[in-house]
Each structure stands twice: as C-alpha cells, then as structure tokens.
Specification:
By secondary structure, this protein is of the alpha/beta class. The protein contains 15 helices and 25 strands. Among the domains are: about 5-230, Rossmann fold (3-Layer(aba) Sandwich), CATH 3.40.50; about 400-494, ANL, C-terminal domain (GMP Synthetase, Chain A, domain 3, 2-Layer Sandwich). The termini are far apart.
Length: about 500
C-alpha cells in the first residue's frame, strides 16, 4: 500500500459496510463512497485527464470534496485544494501557478469560476460536482478502460505556504509524504475505526484536510463534515452524533467556551479535542474544560512538514501552552543561531526531520538552500524545550499574520492597498484577538482623500474576506530604519 488510491481501496474493502461520511444526515458507507470515487475517476479519464494533470477543487467541506479529492488522486492527477473564500485575483494566481487544466466546483461557485476562467490564457475545463451521475451505474463501474500505475514519489497534491517573497510558495506533497503522516497520526493519537471525527476545519487547508478528513478515512472511522463553523451546529453535531475527535483551530473551541447556550451541550463523547495553526489561549482553554470537561491539546505542524508534534501529556493542566512531543517517526530539534542544539529553556529555531516533509519548494532553489540544512527542514518557528522535553513555540522569525489558523503574508495585502490611487504607503500587521489568532490591521500613509470604509471596500473582491483589514489607521509617516526598511515591530508594539 504505497499510494493514496491503494490506501483508500484497502480501507473501503475492510470497512465496506461502515459509515464513511455523514453529510447533512446522509449516511455514505465506505463501499458507496468507493463507487462514487471510481465513477468520478472514470468521468475525469473520459474527459481527457491523465497522470500529472493538475485539477483544482473549489468546494466547501462535505461529501463532494471527499469524492473529488480521492477521485482526482485515483486517476493519477494532482489535487489543488482551493480555499472557498478566495476571490478572482487569488484564484487566477493559484490556477496559473499550478497549470490547472480542470476545475471542480459547485453551482454556487460557478459564476465566479466562469469569470476567472475567462481571464486565463490557458484553457481550463469546468466540472460541477452536481453533474456526477447518480445512481452509480454498474456499467460505468465495470469499465476497465484505464489503469494507472502511480509513482509513490509523485505529488498527489499542491498546496501553498505563505512566504516572505510577497507570493505564496507552491508545495508538492507526495503519496509517500501523506501516508507516512497519516500512519504516524493514527499511531500517536490511537485512532481507530470506532472514532467519529468532526470535520469543521476547512479541508482546503492542511489542518482540516490531513488531521480530520484524511485521518478519519485512513482509519476507517466516520467523518461528519461541516461546510461552515457555526457554534450551535457544532455543539449539536458533537452531542447528537457522539463525536470522539474534534481537531480544529483555536478560535473554534474558544468561541464554544465563551458561548452562552440555553442548555450546556454534552461533550462527554469527546476523547480528543486538538487545535493547530495558532496558539490556544490558556484562559479560554481552562474555560473550555470547566464548561465541557475536556482540555484542548495543542498540535504543531506546517504545510511543508505535515504534523510535527502534539501535546498528549498526562499532566496537561501544567502544560497547556505546549505543543508536546514529536509524533511517531518525526524528529525535532531546536537550534540556536550559532548552529548548536539549544539547552532546555533556551530559544532557537525549530527544525524537523521526517519522511512527511517535502523535498523542496518548486522552482525556488535559493529558498531551499536557506531552509534545508543537512537532514533538517528549518521551519522559521522559534521555540524552546522544558526539562521534560515538551516543546513550546514562542514566535516566528518573520512577520506573518495568523487569522483563524490561516497564515497570511502581509505583502499580499500591502500590494492591494498600495494599488489604491489614494494610498502612498501601506503596512499590514496582525493585532491579537481574545481567541488566540490575529485580526488584520492596515496602517496607511495617504496621498489623497480617503476613508476607512473606502479602503475596506476597495479590498473586497480582490482578496479573500479573511485577509481584508478589519482595522485601518492613517498616519503621516511610517517608522523606518536608516536604510529605509519599515520597522514593523514598532507598529505591532503600539
């Protein structure tokens, strides 16, 4: 079992009569899901899709996303998961950067996709998930008109990581990368086919994709996807369906902890509640425990490395801020600036050695030389270990904005802001929120009349809604170093 299609086929045979996905009350067995996936793969093949083709997936969490992901992989093509908040400019960039030849979406997104595809120079087909034939005819399933011999070291998907170049960096993760991460997660978290996963974190992002959707299906467990995070729906889903594993981003349990429900939901079925992509505020973690009887455990990972570590300490009350110890088969070291391994309590850069880690950024040789040293990938995250070996993250080497678990490159926002005719200079920074993430603040020097409302409206439709500044401040000038470099730390500390 060396590829994602082989993995799913094996799981589907072993758990054929078990529920794979429960979407909006619709229960899909593993054997039915396998037929859906096979049907889509055949459809894609008959549309001319071949190994190595890049297929974008613009769908919310749900059965169609699951079918789309595994259907694309089954034909040997490369999945390009797209955030369903993206707007024209972003979609166009990612489609072009990946050389996408087909985009799978739904009727809700079709008008936007039609606009984007009309702007592309390269041809790209559009396929609506609603057009997948049902019921799945035995004729189409018995067809033997394509056989795919997939290289385990070939990319199964492209994702993007925020970078300091002003544009996200493309990352190709292989079948080998993903299977190693999934098996390590299952071993470390002791996931079984009896578990029930809540799929609330977006499947287009590495956290929701790998640690909810893929981990659930790898283990033969049952996945309950939610298209959007709604506190009432989440609480009802956990209680009604006896959810056992909830892996999300910190604002999700934070909102639940602060919510005033008419009747306190019963979360006694949860055996694991885990967050990643941003720090979980200790005060809200304590409040979550007081309300629901379980602590939120922190997980550390990245798009480049997959899952790195998780805090499963039995003494969780005293280590709420820790991201724990490495998952099975992963090595983590903290290196000081002079290249030595940091002592307990000493801050340094976290470096990872893992089969799940990518071999390099596509087409960025200079960046690769910087982040790969020896057998280690240097993450850019600053951390320290305590005497017991638990890892704590203390910051980033570079100034990314963490909005609800999404890492936003401020340069991307600044490019949009500075294209406004009334803006002379602009800086985007993150302002901490009570939920452990940050909101986007724009600090702007004007060259003509302009209001906060105009700035926000100008950004709308050009970047995803979570990137649009929620705070706007006008200044006469920006603080700069003697060499003219903007001193972001001064703006952040104000």
């Amino acid at each position: 079992m060396k590829t994602i299609p082989e993995m799913f086929s094996s799981v589907a045979k072993q758990h054929a009569k078990r529920a794979a996905v429960v979407d909006g009350g619709k229960v899909i067995l593993y054997e039915t899901l396998e037929k859906r996936i096979r049907t889509l793969a055949l459809k894609l093949y008959r549309m001319g899709i071949r190994q190595g083709d890049r297929i974008a997936l613009l769908l919310p969490n749900g059965l169609d996303f699951v079918t789309g992901y595994f259907g694309i992989a089954a034909v040997g093509a490369i999945v390009v998961p797209m955030n369903d908040h993206y707007q024209q400019t972003e979609l166009l960039y990612f489609l072009d950067e990946c050389g996408v030849s087909l985009l799978i979406t739904s009727k809700n997104f079709a008008p936007l996709c039609d606009q984007v595809l009309s702007m592309r120079k390269s041809p790209c087909q559009l396929f609506l998930a609603e057009d997948l034939p049902e019921p799945f005819e035995s004729e189409s399933l018995s067809s033997d008109d394509f056989k795919v011999d997939i290289d385990p070291e070939a990319p199964v998907m492209y994702q993007f990581s925020s970078g300091s170049t002003g544009r996200p960096k493309r990352i190709g993760r292989t079948h080998t990368n993903l299977l190693f991460e999934l098996d390590s997660l299952i071993q470390t978290l002791r996931i079984t086919h009896e578990d029930r996963f809540l799929g609330a974190a977006p499947f287009s992002h590495v956290n929701g994709l790998m640690r909810s959707m893929m981990a659930s299906l790898r283990a033969g467990a049952t996945l309950y996807p939610l298209a959007r995070f709604d506190r009432q729906v989440v609480a009802e889903t956990i209680e009604k369906n006896r959810i056992s594993i909830f892996i999300g981003v910190p604002f999700m349990p934070s909102i639940l902890a602060k919510s005033h429900f008419r009747r306190r939901p019963d979360f006694s079925s949860l055996r694991l509640c885990v967050t990643a992509s941003a720090p979980m505020p200790q005060k809200l973690n304590q409040q979550f425990y007081e309300n629901f009887g379980i602590y939120v455990r922190q997980l550390y990972g990245s798009t480049e490395t997959g899952t790195i570590s998780v805090n499963l300490s039995p003494d969780i009350e005293r280590s709420l801020d820790s991201v724990g110890t490495p998952i099975a088969g992963v090595e983590v070291e903290v290196f000081t600036d002079d290249g030595r391994i940091a002592k307990p309590g000493e801050i340094g850069e976290c470096a990872v050695k893992s089969i799940a880690t990518i071999k390099g950024y596509d087409g960025l040789d200079e960046v690769n030389k910087e982040v790969y040293r020896g057998d280690y990938f240097f993450t850019g995250d600053l951390g320290k270990r305590d005497e017991g070996g638990l890892l704590y993250l203390v910051g980033r080497k570079k100034f990314f904005i963490n909005r609800g678990g999404y890492k936003i490159d401020p340069h991307e926002i600044e490019e949009i802001l500075e294209s406004h005719p009334g803006v002379e200079e602009a800086v985007a920074i993150g302002v901490p929120t009570p939920f452990g993430d940050e909101k986007v603040k724009a600090v702007i020097v004007l060259k003509g009349p302009c209001s906060e409302e105009e700035i926000v409206e100008y950004c709308r439709g050009k970047i995803a809604d979570f990137k649009i500044p929620s705070l706007v401040e006008f200044k006469e000038s920006l603080p700069k170093s003697p060499t003219g470099k903007i001193r972001r730390t001064l703006l952040i500390s104000e």
